[in-house]
Write a structure and sequence with these properties.
Largest sheet: 3 strands, mixed
Radius of gyration: 23 Å
Distance between the termini: 41 Å
Strand content: 15-25%
Order of helices and strands: HEEHHEHHEEEHEHEEEHEEEHHE
Helix content: 25-40%
């Protein structure tokens, strides 16, 4: 009987205990949360406007990112979804070992074009109405602490949790915007975006300005071949590619040339004027913040919001 018990204990050690120790020692699929719920207590952040690398408390940094990225008067569930997205993005970024020049040796930077927007607690509070400062900061702090340690994963790895302000009613596929297919960044119907103040916008310029802007960014244009043509659109409506002066360019480049809020633009010529009517704000991939706010105000939980915008992922 003792021999049988010894054999059973040995099997358990091999099958369960030893692998568990190995996972703990190596950090598992991603670094284990510490006592304060974050993957490590301190991180190094390159503060772009100060041109300096600073050590920050991870939880405080996440609160400051959420405060900079999403309006504090949004629904609490939307803020919690934003907190999880920010934490997941941070962990995913920090675990990549390649040397990223923009980071100046830090884990992340504060340039929103490269990482996530960031603003110190003091700076952020000074932009709020005085009687709202404590209420808003407490709300954002709770969004981070209530989701402490929670990250989104796909196949047991932290995802690239990208997000944007406002979709055009449907989010974009990563493949249509950046050329790389990502299983959890697909087209998703996004209700409530039309309520966003950034849902619709317009840009217009005369033909001379239109041609000059394009000529500064694109080589080889021949205007006898047309001002714009052969527009290819995604299922969500964003421009994937088009021809300007006979030269094919990406929709993302066209957006950048004219400073449009998104690639979902209808382009037309009226006499000597080019008019671009735009839907949405941002690249359109991943979670729509205004869509998340609408869902939160409609009674959806942050788990449901994340599941909708990042299909196939798990909250772990």
């Amino acid at each position: 009987m003792k021999k049988i018990a010894a054999v059973i204990l040995y099997i358990l050690a091999v099958v369960l205990i030893i692998p568990l120790i190995a996972v703990l020692l190596t950090g598992g699929f991603f670094k284990c949360p510490t006592a304060n719920g974050e993957f490590k207590e301190k991180i190094n952040v390159y503060v772009t406007k100060e041109d300096a690398v600073k050590e920050m408390d991870t939880s405080q940094y996440l609160k400051e990112v959420v405060a900079a990225e999403m309006p504090a008067d949004f629904s609490f569930e939307a803020l919690k979804a934003q907190a999880v997205a920010a934490r997941t993005y941070l962990i995913s970024k920090s675990q990549k070992k390649e040397n990223i020049p923009e980071h100046k040796g830090a884990d992340v930077c504060t340039d929103y074009n490269h990482c996530k927007a960031w603003m110190s607690e003091e700076e952020r509070k000074n932009l709020w109405e005085e009687d709202k400062r404590d209420e808003y900061w407490d709300k954002i702090s709770r969004a981070v602490t209530d989701t402490a340690g929670k990250v989104l994963t796909y196949e047991d790895e932290p995802i690239t949790a990208v997000f944007h302000s406002t979709s055009s009613g449907m989010t974009e596929k990563a493949e249509d915007v950046w050329g790389t297919d990502v299983a959890y960044l697909q087209n998703v119907e996004s209700e409530g975006d039309e309520l966003s103040p950034r849902y619709s916008s317009e840009f217009s310029c005369d033909i001379t300005e239109y041609c000059e802007k394009i000529e500064q960014a694109v080589s080889g244009v021949d205007w006898s071949l047309g001002l714009f043509s052969d527009i290819v659109r995604s299922e969500a409506g964003g421009i994937i590619s088009l021809k300007v002066g006979g030269v094919q360019i990406k929709g993302t480049q066209f957006r950048e040339i004219f400073g449009l809020r998104s690639t979902n633009a209808e382009i037309e010529r009226q006499d000597n004027t080019i008019i671009m009517t735009v839907k949405g704000n941002g690249h359109g991939v991943g979670m729509s913040q205004y869509g998340a706010n609408y869902l939160g105000n409609s009674g959806k939980s942050y788990e449901e919001i994340l599941s909708k915008y990042y299909p196939g992922t798990k909250l772990q």
